[in-house]
TrEMBL record:
InterPro entries: MBL_Glyoxalase_II (IPR051453), Metallo-B-lactamas (IPR001279), RibonucZ/Hydroxyglut_hydro (IPR036866), TPR-like_helical_dom_sf (IPR011990). SUPFAM superfamilies: Metallo-hydrolase/oxidoreductase, TPR-like. The keyword Zinc applies. The keyword Protein transport does not apply. Residues 325-335 have a biased composition (Basic and acidic residues). This is Metallo-hydrolase/oxidoreductase. One of its GO terms (molecular function) is hydrolase activity. Keywords: Hydrolase, Metal-binding, Zinc. Residues 109-295 form the Metallo-beta-lactamase domain. Its cofactor is Zn(2+). The lineage of its organism: Eukaryota, Fungi, Fungi incertae sedis, Zoopagomycota, Kickxellomycotina. SMART domains: Lactamase_B.
Length: 335
């Protein structure tokens, strides 16, 4: 009975969050339908919305609404795409390989972002992977102009191309930045120089001249009001980078997640670099900054302030080695 109660609460929460996401994406019919389902399961939440938003789940939606309103004020739109929800949807007809790739994409829970300047309608796609057709369809539907593709780091699930072993022998190719570049040859491909070899390894058609290197501090403008600044944050990979938009929205790739950080035990990972990136570089970003992570691990967004209180930006002091600092930090999950 208790399990059932819990399941119903989780479902109601999922519907409530999906409703808010649909609302943010301008899918109002879907937003209303999900909100109705949520309220049918938890009628008290509707009351909380109408009165004081005491329920933590409703508070999340209210906070989200505030973030969206602030984005709108500064002429910014953030479109967060999740495989299985927005893209990489079950293909029509018989596409056994594509279906498998999409199933895999749903399991990987990568977020792909469109960062849009509302004045010019220009946008940057961040970590275009898994379903280039789906991503381009959203760009077309929203009548946006794709100005650049940025990669937070060179891992296959953020770039596409040849999957890692043992799947590499199957001649399967996942659409990603290589495919985007083939279709749009003049599109700048914004990559940190240290991760270019890894991107090129899974996308051998990409040559050095196809990349636009983004060293720390590199900026890209989408319009008069929208500036994207690239921050080098090594640790997960040598060339990991975060995109800081208008000094208050951070696209953190696999460097920072709500309550955790990216793995440091994969090829090219460095615990010492990760500690430095988190404790020095990202901790210097303003607390009110909203963080959009590279995967759906622990939530759709967080903030720098929240991660300083209870995440991997908690100050751990300057004493001791990087290992000591990591030890003080690492009592939470790492993805
Ligand atoms: Fe990664």
């Amino acid at each position: 009975m208790e399990d059932e109660e819990e399941r119903s609460e989780v479902c109601a929460l999922l519907y409530s969050n999906r409703s808010a996401a649909a609302f943010a994406l301008g899918k109002y019919t879907a937003a209303i339908s999900d909100a109705e389902k949520s309220i049918a399961m938890r009628p008290e939440w509707a009351k909380a919305v109408a009165m004081e938003p005491n329920d933590p789940h409703v508070r999340v939606s209210c906070e989200r609404a505030r973030i969206m309103a602030r984005n709108e004020e500064m002429g910014l739109r953030v479109i967060q795409l999740l495989p299985g929800r927005d893209i990489a949807l079950k293909p029509k007809g018989l596409h056994p390989i594509r279906s498998k790739i999409f199933e895999f994409a749903v399991g990987m829970q990568n977020y792909i972002y469109l960062v849009v300047d509302s004045d010019t309608r220009k946008c940057i796609v961040v970590d275009a992977c898994w379903d280039v057709d789906g991503i381009l369809a959203v760009i077309e539907r929203e009548q946006l102009l794709l100005a650049a593709a940025a990669i937070t780091h060179g891992h296959f699930d953020h770039t596409g191309g040849i999957p890692p072993a043992p799947f590499s022998s199957l001649r399967i190719r996942v659409t990603g930045v290589g495919e985007l570049k083939r279709r749009l040859p003049h599109l700048p491909l914004l990559v940190h120089p240290l991760d270019m070899p890894e991107v090129a390894a899974s996308n051998p058609q990409l040559k050095p001249q196809h990349f636009t290197p983004t060293p720390n501090g590199f900026t890209f403008r989408l319009g008069q009001r929208t500036e994207v600044k690239f921050m080098h944050t090594p640790g997960h990979t040598p060339g990991s980078q975060c995109l800081l938009v208008n000094e208050c929205r951070l696209f953190s790739g696999d460097t920072l997640f709500p309550g955790s950080c990216g793995r440091v035990d994969l090829k090219g990972g460095s615990m010492a670099d990760m500690v430095e990136s988190l404790q020095t570089r990202l901790s210097a970003v303003a607390d009110a900054t909203i963080v959009y992570p590279g995967h759906e691990y622990g939530g759709e967004w967080t903030s720098i302030g929240r991660e300083k209180k209870r995440g991997f930006l908690r100050p751990v002091g300057t004493a001791g080695s990087a290992q000591d600092k990591w030890g003080r930090l690492d009592d939470g999950p790492c993805r």
